[in-house]
Specification:
The complex is a heterotrimer of chains A (340), B (95) and C (245). By secondary structure, chain A is an all-alpha fold. Helices cover 63% and strands 2% of the residues of chain A. Chain A contains twelve helices and two strands; from the N terminus they run ααααααααααββαα. In chain A, strands 1-2 form a two-stranded antiparallel sheet. The two termini of chain A are 24 Å apart. Chain B is an alpha+beta fold. Chain B has a domain of 57 residues: Roll (Ubiquitin-like (UB roll)). In chain B, 32% of the residues are buried. Chain C has one domain: Up-down Bundle (Ferritin). The longest helix of chain C is centred in the first third of the chain and has 28 residues. Classes of the chains: A mainly alpha (340), B alpha+beta (95), C mainly alpha (245). The interface between A and C is large, with 48 and 49 residues. Chain B: This is Phenylacetate-CoA oxygenase subunit PaaB. Chain B: Pfam families: PaaB (PF06243).
Chain lengths: 340, 95, 245
């Protein structure tokens, strides 16, 4: 009996057990796993799972968690300059939520047997990615609104299906995240609306932000289906429920009428309703830019990562101090409600 | 599993009086007192709770998935433990 | 000639600005931590405190005017906050020392205001619960940093020393606040001495008042970094006169 979170598979190491027997056992486990996924049951941390499934989940959940905490930076950039106290409170609460969401997601990843330290280390050394969208700068206040409306809008489109993801802890984390994020998109939209209906300068600021954030937001859904390396397997495992292109189309269809209501235009001359398809057609995405930013050549890649590393390094003495204190006072722990 | 020596804690929250604590998630903290406070900040910032328990994750003993059948299946064939097992003549109340 | 009524209103305004500016400025400083806290759990904790303070500031400023006009359109000399809250974040130890000194004061102050029937009793009754948590947070961290590693002890000692000279100002009487400042000061000293002692730190020796430091913030005299702080805070709002956000 081990801790709930120690989800790694156990090696047999039992003398006298033949390889064939091990293989047969493996196949039996695999059949149980496949049947559970097929029946839309959730896989839980201590269940047997294929190593590739585990690795794929760790990769995706870690990237998601990293995106939440790196994603704090572009918005935190405006906390100290928020133009009204109401907006300032909203923005602080939103950036705080992102820290919280990062925390939920790192916790979900830890149930797969990977510590937060390991994951942070991989982020800091560039071995794990975060969403490329956060490598774009927030140049004006309107960018805060555009991020809320478009970036969070795209994220929500991606995340809602993840609430039904086959891995229990990830699905549960996403339920919590989606519930809390419902205010993120609305506040962004409301902030943009105030600008769009405000002075000429404010309207121009809003339009400029939408012009800059529209295409990167569409890239958030990832490469087109025929170029996506992970999609097919992730869908088979029900980690992912819809393809990149499907979700992207869903987002465009939702965003176009929202832009009209805002009184702002989207920077795509090819954007028009296609009666036959029942969807909006949109122009070609500049995938060269996407891959370039992903490779590290975006406007803020270095800055985002070095800010994160700096915060982690600056905090090391604090974390060590608390650990040392706990060690010294191990036996004097108290506090907490009695029992049930 | 630690974060720079900070162990992982499981958080249980009582959402309102009269209900039992349910598992909310986990977090890292250097000790129990900080774990409680971190849990308050993280898991009840939208008024989700009135009471919190924190337990070091390593202190939880869990049934193993391999024991699933012997652990849980024997109870599946004892329908007489459930009230719906019994037939009561129509019109009889308060049973 | 001012009538007794307008005189009383001015006194209430002055007191609301003193309390409101303290909360506004400290909230702003804590907001600067976003994205840079030592650990994720602490991001959430610091933001909670900042949001509590911002909420208090908004209630207080709205009580005596338009919150945004007061926050964004006053000049530096019109801010009535104590100098302690405007001090830069420094390292985490400085932030915690500032929190300890200020939240201990604020808890005593709001405790007294809540038990009275003055114009701030309502706000104080709600805020005293918030600041009790802030004080607990500061105390917990003071204990861990003071009695942690050699490095953390040294950093915490330096922070407590550096901010000590700004603590005398907290107890300068503010007209319109019906509280016993002398009693508050001795309770504050006792509380801070106790926490520092348990954190294996000693109470700093330097003066807590001085020709420049004492009460200067409440009179509108601030420290150098404050001008830069409010320049950043007010810049966008002031660039679009009359705009709604």
């Amino acid at each position: 009996m081990t801790a709930v979170t120690a989800g790694t598979t156990e090696t047999t190491g039992v003398p006298g057990v033949s390889d064939a027997a091990v293989a047969a056992e493996q196949a039996a486990y695999e059949a149980v796993f496949d049947a559970a996924v097929a029946a839309d049951e959730r896989i839980e941390p201590r269940d047997w799972m294929p190593e590739a499934y585990r690795a794929s989940l760790v990769r995706q959940i870690a990237q998601h968690a990293h995106s939440e905490i790196i994603g704090m930076q572009p918005e935190a950039n405006w906390i100290t300059r928020a133009p009204s106290l109401r907006r300032k409170a909203i923005l602080m609460a939103k950036v705080q939520d992102e820290a919280g969401h990062g925390l939920y997601l790192y916790s979900a990843a830890e149930t797969l047997g990977t510590s937060r330290d390991e994951l942070l280390d991989k982020l800091h050394s560039g071995r794990q990615k975060y969403s490329s969208i956060f490598n774009y700068p927030t140049l004006t206040w309107a960018d805060v609104g555009a991020i809320g409306w478009l970036v969070d809008g795209a994220a929500i489109t991606n995340q809602v299906p993840l609430c039904r993801c086959s891995y229990g802890p990830y699905a549960r984390a996403m339920v919590r995240v989606c519930k809390e994020e419902s205010f993120h998109q609305r506040q962004g939209y409301e902030a943009l609306l105030a600008l769009s209906r405000g002075t000429e300068a404010q309207h121009a600021m809003a339009q400029d932000a939408v012009d800059r954030w529209w295409w990167p937001s569409l890239m958030m859904f990832g490469p087109p289906d025929d170029e996506s390396t992970h999609t097919a397997q992730a869908m088979a495992w029900k980690i992912k429920r819809h393809s990149n292109d499907e979700l992207r189309q869903r987002f465009v269809d939702i965003a176009v009428p929202q832009a009209e209501a805002l009184g702002l235009t989207l920077p795509d001359p090819d954007l028009r309703w296609n009666e036959e398809r029942g969807h909006y057609d949109f122009g070609p995405i500049d995938w060269a830019e996407f891959w370039d930013v992903l490779k590290g050549n975006g406007p803020c890649n270095d800055q985002r990562l070095s800010t994160r590393r700096q915060a982690h390094e600056d905090g090391a003495w604090v974390r060590e101090a608390a650990a040392a204190h706990a060690e010294k006072h191990k036996h004097t722990g108290k506090h907490g409600e009695a029992q049930a | 599993m630690t974060s720079d020596g900070w162990p992982l804690w499981e958080v249980f929250v009582r959402s309102r009086r009269g209900l039992s604590h349910t598992h909310a998630g986990s977090l890292h903290a250097p000790d129990a007192e900080m774990a409680l406070r971190n849990a308050r900040d993280l898991y009840t910032r939208r008024s989700e709770g009135v009471s919190i328990w924190v337990v070091p994750s390593t202190e939880i003993t869990a049934s193993s998935p391999d024991e699933k059948d012997p652990f849980f299946e024997p109870s599946a064939d004892k329908p007489y433990r459930h009230p719906t097992f019994y037939e009561i003549p129509e019109g009889v109340k308060h049973l | 000639m001012s009538t007794p009524d307008t005189r009383e209103a001015a006194v209430i305004t002055g007191a609301a600005l003193a309390l409101g500016d303290d909360a506004l400025v400290l909230s702003h400083r804590l907001g600067e931590w976003a994205g840079s806290a030592p650990v994720l759990e602490e991001e959430v904790a610091l933001a909670n405190i900042a949001l509590d303070l911002l909420g208090q500031a908004r209630v207080l400023l709205s009580q005596v005017g338009d919150e945004d006009e007061l926050a964004y359109l006053r000049e530096e000399r019109s801010f009535r906050n104590v100098q302690l809250v405007e001090q830069p974040n420094g390292d985490f130890a400085h932030t915690i020392a500032r929190q300890l000194y200020f939240s201990t004061y604020q808890r005593l102050l709001y405790g007294q205001l809540a038990s009275g029937d003055g114009p701030f009793a309502g706000l104080a009754a709600k805020a005293v619960k918030e600041v009790a948590y802030h004080q607990d947070h500061a105390e917990q961290w003071t204990l861990r940093l003071g009695d942690g590693t050699t490095e953390s002890h040294e950093r915490m000692r330096r922070a407590c020393d550096a901010l000590w000279k700004y603590t005398g100002e907290l107890f300068q009487p503010v007209e319109g606040l019906d509280v016993d400042h002398a009693a508050m000061e001795s309770a504050w000293l006792a509380s801070v001495t106790d926490v520092l002692g348990r954190a294996t730190l000693t109470v700093p020796e330097g003066p807590r008042t001085g020709a420049w430091a004492a009460g200067a913030g409440r009179q509108g005299l601030h420290t150098e970094s404050f001008g830069r702080m409010i320049a950043e805070m007010q810049h966008l709002h002031r660039s679009h006169p009359g705009a709604a956000w």
